[in-house]
Every structure is written in C-alpha cells, then in structure tokens.
Amino acid sequence: MTTVGHLINGESSTPEGRTQDVFNPSTGEVSKQVALASKATVEEAIAAAEAAFPAWRNTPPAKRARVMFKFKQLLEDNSDKICEMIGEEHGKIAHDAAGELIRGIENVEFACYAPQLLKGEHSKNVGPEIDSWSEMQPLGVVAGITPFNFPAMVPLWMYPAAIVCGNCFVLKPSERDPTSTLFIASLLLEAGLPAGVMNVVNGDKEAVDTLLEDKRVKAVSFVGSTAIAEYIYATATKNGKRCQALGGAKNHAIIMPDADMDNAVNQLLGAAFGSSGERCMALSVAVAVGDAAADTLVAKMKEAMKPLKVGAHSDSSNDFGPVITKAAQNKVNGCIDSAEAQGATVVVDGRNPSVAGFDNGFFVGATLIDNVTPDMDSYKEEIFGPVLQVVRVETMQEAMDLIDAHEYGNGTCIFTRDGEAARYFTDNIQVGMVGVNIPLPVPVSYHSFGGWKRSLFGDLSAYGPDAIKFYTRRKTVTQRWPSAGVREGVSFAFPS
Ligand code: NAD
Q1: Rounded to whole angstroms, what are the CA distances from 416 to 232, 282, 404, 431, 432?
Q2: Domain spanning 3-247+455-477 has what CATH number?
Q3: pTM
Q4: N-term to C-term CA, the chain
Q5: Quick one: which atom of ligand 1 is closest to the CA of 209?
Q6: Does the beta carbon of 384 lie inside 6 Å of ligand 1?
Q7: What is the pLDDT along the chain (496 residues), one digit of tens a residue?
C-alpha cells in the first residue's frame, strides 16, 4: 500500500516511523497510509527552509513572481488530476473540487502581483537632505498547518503569498487527505522554485508541536477547528511567534419576510449541503423572521431537497459526497439525534441514506431541521455536515442578536429586498464576512478572509493584503547624504 511521505529540501522522502490510515470516504476503505513525521524529520524541513532563506530573500520579487506564473499554469494543466486526488481522499465531487482549486489558483494569481505589493513607501526630504523609506522584509522560516476540508485551497491561501514575500515555508497538511496537497507543492519545484524554499511534512500533533516550539520558525498560519486554533495561537505566541489561527464557524442566514424566497431556497441548497456542509463558510442556520416566512421557507426547502443526490465522489451527477470519516458521520448523525431529542422537528432526515454500491461509505443525506432553539446542543456546536437548521424569530433585531450572541463570527448573510435593512445588517452585525443575497460571502483573493470572535485568533486575516502584512515586517530607514562641506553642529534636543 502506498505511503504518502514528505517533501523536504526538494526531495520526496518517506522515512521509517509512525503512519496513519488514509480512507476513501466514498467506499469506507483504507486506500493509503500517510507518514507521521517525527520531531527530527520536521527539524530537517525547518533546517532546509532556513538554509534556503538567504538566497531566496535576495531573489528579486519579480523573479519570485515568475515562479508563481509558471506554478499557476501547472495547476491549471494538472487540474483534473488534482480534483481526482481530492475526491478520492476528501469525497468531494469533481465540480466542487474544481471550484476549490480555482479559488486556490486565484491566490497564486495574487502572489504574481508581488513586485507591486512589496514596493514599500518612500518620502523624500523628511528633513534637510534626509530621505526616509519603509520596506517590507520577509520573516524567514514560516509554517502553515491546514485542515482536511480544503486540501488544495487553504494551503494555497498561505504559501504563495509567504514565498513570494521572500520567506521559506514548512507546510503541515491534514493527515486525512494529504495526497493532493503534497502533489501541488511538488509542482512548485517544477515551476522553478529552489529546493528548500517550500517543504511539506505530513504528520500529527508531534509535527505541529515541533513547528510551534522551534525558535527558527518565525510565524505560524493555522486553519482548523476552534479548540486547536486556540491552542496553536496560545502556544505559538508564547514562543514569540507571529500567529494567525482561523477556527470553526456557525454561519447564519437571515430570511426576511420580503426575501425572494425561491432565490433564497436555491442559494441555501448549495450553501448548506454543498461539500456535505464541510465548509467553514457553510450556511448551517436559517433564521426566519416571522412564522409566515418560516413556513414558506420550510415548505419550499422540503420540496427542493427531494431531488438532491448524495453519493460517491466519482459520479459527477451527485450533488455532494460523503463526510470525511466514520467518526464525522457518527457525529453528524448524533447532532440530528440530539436536536430531535431536545424538541426540534426533523423535516427531512438524512440519517443513514442508502447509496447503491457504496454500502460502507461515510454518507449523510441532506437534512432539514425546523423549530431549533438556541439552547439546543445542535445549535451551539459546529455540526460540519449537510444539515440546515431553521430558527424562528419575530424581528430582524432578534435575528441579529442571536447571531451576535453565538461564539463564532465567521460568515453570515441576509436575504431581503430592503436596502435599508441590508445596510443596517452589514453595518452592525458582529461577523467578519457578510453577504447580502450572497450565501457564501468568501472574499476574492485580493481582499482578505477572516472571521470575528472565536473564528479567528490573531489580528490579521488570511490571504490578500493582510497576508502581505502577515508575512513581512516593516523596516524604516532614514538616510542623509550631506552635500559636500555641510556639517551639523552638536544638538541634544530630540531631532525634529
Ligand atoms: P482540525 O482542527 O482537526 O485539524 C486542523 C489541523 O490541526 C490539522 O493539520 C491537524 O493535523 C492539526 N491538529 C489536529 N489536532 C491537533 C492537536 N491536538 N494538536 C496539534 N495539531 C492538531 O480541523 P479539521 O477537522 O481538519 O478541519 C475542520 C475544521 O476547520 C472546522 O472546524 C472548520 O470550520 C475549520 N475551518 C476553518 C476555516 C476558516 O477559514 N475559519 C477554513 C477551513 C476549515
């Protein structure tokens, strides 16, 4: 059986040591093993990155960007292969994997702007014959730790920007679907990136903790669940590193009585059930304002969900695939059980769907639960499955208070025809990414991605302009070249 290894200093390696099963979630079978890097292996990757740094930081930004142009082309040329790799280990249907990859490639396109983004600021004559400028210097070795649900896109949020800023990178992908991530990183070498600038170590907590503790690592970008994000942020910052740690979510959509209900239903279908709800921006709660809106929404959703098809990633006529593991399947089913036990109404029940030919796959069908209340466990936690819960409220303010009271603040959206209501909502809601009649307001690559509250620990969001700030530090130089013969006298006053 294949073992997915590491990429260190431009070489693939699979040292002896611990391994873990990688599943094909559509069949429920173990398809591969993944190597779990030891402390020594991670230290080797850090050393390779550190050794590559002096030459890479002095490589002109335009030359660094040229690697990204080639990388983009290679990603496009290998798109079908990458989507198949994602499907086999994550379970995403090809159309969804292709969407993920395109959003990832957009971050490579952003990195191609590097020379423009790194120009810095210059001021002439800040004093007599004195000029001053600020430049953005790379940090050195930086690390990324990524989740299973976007094995291509989320790593691409991080390392193209980090590398093009002049840093060297060590990536620790999710051990649950590592193949596409490793393959994509190898394309960077094919694009001309020098050995050691980009390294990938597969692994678990041992690898992560090594990255968090090693003094040579200057910054850590993390995306994953909130409990781990909080741990990463606390540990990395305690060890003197810059850190951004993006966590979990519970994204609400407000359905106003004046909304175009058919449009809202279409949007909710994709946003709640696409990728089996395993997206940090998945819409998992519809907050209907008024019983009339709630009744219409539930009736239309129930009807619209009838043709939805859950099934294997290999059949592109399916709408969405399995969840990632047996444990994830049990957890999602458990959340539906608990909502029902606590008094909610399961309108469409996706527990234990039958998928012909794939009896052992980790499938959960699209599920709609009505009359959910904020005290229910299924409302409080992130389900991360194809489950849409409906909460009924009387007013828009009540809906907004509900969203603001939730521990997460990643994404949200309002469906309405009322511009005044929409403006009030976008202005006041305590959430980082907000949509108006847009169910998944994922910012484009030249903006930045980040939630509020317990969805993001740290000051800077992922990708876009914030990534350039995160992966560089400012140095300000003040310089005088006095004209011949000009000498300043001695002064003990503060220079002004
Ligand atoms: P996870 O937290 O289990 O794993 C993320 C990474 O952390 C993996 O690389 C994993 O190996 C590592 N990790 C896990 N346990 C660890 C531990 N005890 N110590 C050190 N490292 C550890 O997350 P996941 O299940 O892979 O991904 C799903 C979660 O990610 C969801 O909560 C989802 O909302 C979140 N997510 C958030 C965003 C965002 O932008 N906010 C984007 C994608 C996913």
Answers
A1: 39, 19, 19, 18, 20
A2: 3.40.605.10
A3: 0.97
A4: 70
A5: 20
A6: yes
A7: 899 999 999 999 998 999 999 999 999 999 999 999 999 999 999 999 999 999 999 999 999 999 999 999 999 999 999 999 999 999 999 999 999 999 999 999 999 999 999 999 999 999 989 999 999 999 999 999 999 999 999 999 999 999 999 999 999 999 999 999 999 999 999 999 999 999 999 999 999 999 999 999 999 999 999 999 999 999 999 999 999 999 999 999 999 999 999 999 999 999 999 999 999 999 999 999 999 999 999 999 999 999 999 999 999 999 999 999 999 999 999 999 999 999 999 999 999 999 999 999 999 999 999 999 999 999 999 999 999 999 999 999 999 999 999 999 999 999 999 999 999 999 999 999 999 999 999 999 999 999 999 999 999 999 999 999 999 999 999 999 988 877 778 888 888 7
Domain with CATH 3.40.605.10 in the chain: 3-247+455-477
CB atoms within 10 A of CB 124: 8
Whose tokens are 């094995």? That residue is 151
Q: Which CATH superfamily is domain 251-436 in?
A: Aldehyde Dehydrogenase; Chain A, domain 2 (3.40.309.10)
Candidate of 103, 153, 156, 204 to mutate for ligand 1, largest count of ligand atoms within 8 Å of Cβ? 204
335 noted as active-site residue: no
DSSP H helices in 167-312: 179-190, 205-213, 226-238, 261-273, 291-305
Index of the ligand 1 atom closest to the CA of residue 456: 41
